[in-house]
Amino acid sequence: TGLETIRSEARKRGVNLLVLGEDFDVFLRRKGLEGSMFDYSNGMQLDGLEVSMLGDFQVRNAALAVCAAENLGCSGKAIREGLKKAKIRGRMEVLGEGPLVVADVAHNPAGVKALVDSLSVFGENRIACVFSCMQDKEYGEMLKVLGEKADAFVLVKPEGNERAEEPEALLEKAKEYAESYTSAGIRDGIEFARGLAGADGMVLITGSIYMMEEVYEALSAE
Hints:
- By secondary structure, the protein is an alpha/beta fold.
- Helix content is 38%, strand content 22%.
- The chain folds into two domains: 2-85, 3-Layer(aba) Sandwich (UDP-N-acetylmuramoyl-L-alanine:D-glutamate ligase), CATH 3.40.1190.10; 93-220, Protein-Tyrosine Phosphatase, Chain A (Alpha-Beta Complex).
- It has a six-stranded mixed beta sheet. A three-stranded antiparallel beta sheet has the order 1-2-3.
């Protein structure tokens, strides 16, 4: 497995390897649209840590960061303040409301699975997914995972990106999992997805980091 490979390499290099769930633990106390609160325990016990980034995976990521900071000698106060200020654009980022618009740059099956597993924080809504992907990615598997939650797909392509897969090719896979459409561009795709989602639904934009510049431009122009 991947972890065993890392363990082997750590032994070769004489590096101390700390593994979440084995050497240190995290306990989720609450999660919501404002972020998550969790307790961390290792050599240092830190309760009530807060992270504003959404997603269960961000709590695990934060715990890894806390462990690294602890072993580098950072104080509990510095760790607490740093976590609270930490932000990453394009990871379960809320960009609009009515319908809710959420963007995430997940671009492989594992990333998409982590995203889908975290969508419950937004409640049970009709989801229209605006999706784009590079040709060399496993977009069939990504669409399958997204199809567990998405009620509709709108397939788009970043302007001028020759590496991006054509929406028509994505459509052939997407229609196996939900009603699916193509759009001439990202701006039009978002607008079409809003109509599909309805005012109480969600537009989920994902599949590639290369579409995000156009996404931000489209939404900032409103």
